[in-house]
Amino acid sequence: MAAQELDHEIATENEIVAFCTDAGNALIGGISHGNQVVKISSKAVVKFGIGVKQKEGRNQTRAYELIDQNIVCVPVVYRCFMRGYVGYIVMEYMNGRPLEKLEESSLIQRIKDIMAYLATIRGSSPEVFFEKSYSPVPGPLCGGAPAGLLWDESEETIFHTIEALERWFNRRLRKEDTKVRFSDYELVLCHLDIAPRNFILLDDGSISLLDWQSAGFYPRIFEVCVFHLAFGGEHSFAEDVVKPADWNDEEQAVIASMGKAWGNTIRNHFKSLFSLDQDQQSMSETNFLLPSD
Fold first, then answer.
1. Is the Cα dihedral 217, 220, 224, 229 positive or negative?
2. Which class does domain 96-253 fall in?
């Protein structure tokens, strides 16, 4: 069983890894054999797992810098590191309860206000983070290739223009499918993992938003699209807080095309894996039949 507490300011990486390996009752979130969250003290938690990358920590740090903490709280990242294939992010502990169900209308309105506020934060190139100039570049808050549900995990594509983002989706559509067009949209801060479990109602009454791995600057419709892909569009949360007030049929059509592109990406990925498996099996059988020297 892990020690009762670990001081995140002075603990070594080895001590943090050891604590997480034998967390016991300190384990407060995550899934078995997946990413997990361990409370190491009254001030800090550690998110760790094969799916945790240092880039997520940098993305969350950038979110903290961009967002007014009086509107929505982003946990401070104290440090992040890798140990083999397992990533560790040491961050501020948010003391409260997840909003698994939005039962109070006042909470629903507060989440709506948070989503509307995030959409006012405009995208800019990572190279001009601390300048007032506006250079729209789609992608993660900290720059680089996007991560999350929408993207093909077998490739890392960095988008330098919104037109490149359009081409990425349109190449994954059939000829008869309606092509997407994003150039009419501003690039705004999108979280891209909006779900009740990621909102924490803190003990002081404020609200915290967790899990910033997928966040970036994208057209606002990306937020709705990812939610529909994750929940099938049947979760009342989507209608309550994710869709903007001025949502229209044209945007719904764009999301339908994005969904088709996503589905084709998934199918092609599994076809490639199946083809590779068949090729390997064929090679194995061929090698088995080859005469020995």
1. negative
2. alpha beta
